[in-house]
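Section 3.1: Structural characterization of target chains.
Under the original work plan, the team committed to producing a structural model for every single-chain target entering the pipeline before any wet-lab resources were allocated. The record below documents one such target. The sequence was received from the expression subgroup and is listed exactly as submitted; it comprises 296 residues.
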Amino acid sequence: MKSKLDLNLLIVFLEVYRLRSITLASESLGLTQPGVSGVLKRLQAQLGTALFVRKGRGISPTYAAIQLASEIEPAFTKVESALGNVSGFDIQAHRVFTVYVNEAMMHIVRPKIEADESMGNCSIQLHLTPNNEDELFHQLSLHKAELAIDFGYLSNPSYSYDAFYDDVAVMVCRKDHPNIQNTVTREQFYAEKQVLIQRRRTDLLEANYFTEESLIPRELSCECASMVSMMALVSDSDSVGIMSGLLANKYAKHFNLQVIPLPFTSKPLKHFMVWHKRNDHNPANKWLRNKLSTLL
């Protein structure tokens, strides 16, 4: 190996390693695919070992690549954090932050952001979280968003997490429901047809996600894509649905609904904030996390 190594080669290597794709790494770094491939060839030549091998339509890191990444990634993360601290962050500078949120947080946080007069010249744009956690991590790695707020804890060693808000699951039905008023028993719950929400992640937005108890199969009335759609469907039928208490209480009057505690032992519906660890000490990202946390 040569005595001097261009650190830019390692930056490209780490991005390819994180994304497991030359195509995605080139997009993230603003380089051409041949450019990224050339960098990898130069680095492999200097190290005297292969770093990636073909696997199906993608690439897979070799043992040498895994070792190299485990040693240098923490150091590069510290360098990025140090540079961010030096450059600082000024809310009077024009900047647009992108944040991924789930449906409940979209409806609760957006009005508070618009009413906040302490944003300086910064703005926060909210987008619905991607359909699965792999895509979410992929988008955060590509710098498509500064952070995300979503249900549940998404375990990934490259990301940091912080509890954001504890919600509770509730049952909703129309106010003039013929069989349910103010409270619901297990027998009543299982006797009614259910409006369900399409799963976005494994066990997400299903009753089993909100309780440790084993629930018996329920009769399906229909399946919808959002909690707002669920409220609309429940409002003009005898069906019932399970959803976020935060969102249910916000719109219960609009849809003429009853919001009723579940007839079984439930657990908190936890919302977590997640961001890439490279942004742990980044002043702008820290400001954004603090701003969002104080809104609720």
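The domain at 169-267 is CATH 3.40.190.10 (D-Maltodextrin-Binding Protein; domain 2).
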